[in-house]
Amino acid sequence: MTKKPWVKVRAHSFILRSMKKVLVTGGAGYIGSHTVIELLNHGYIPVIVDDFSNSDKRVLKGLEEILGFAPSLYRCDCTDKAVLKKVFEAEMPDAVIHFAAFKAVGESTEQPVRYYRNNIDSLLCVLELMQEFNVCELVFSSSCTVYGQPETLPVHEKCEQKPATSPYGYTKQVCERILTDATTANPTLRCALLRYFNPIGAHPSGLIGELPYGVPNNLVPYITQTAAGIREKLIIHGNDYATPDGTCIRDYIHVCDLANAHVKALEWLDTKVSACEAFNLGQGMGNSVKEVVDTFVRVNATPVKVEIGPRRAGDVEQVWADASKASSLLQWKTERSLAESLKDAWKWQKQLSIG
Ligand code: UDP
Question: Are 310 and 304 in contact (CB under 8 A)?
Answer without folding.
Answer: no
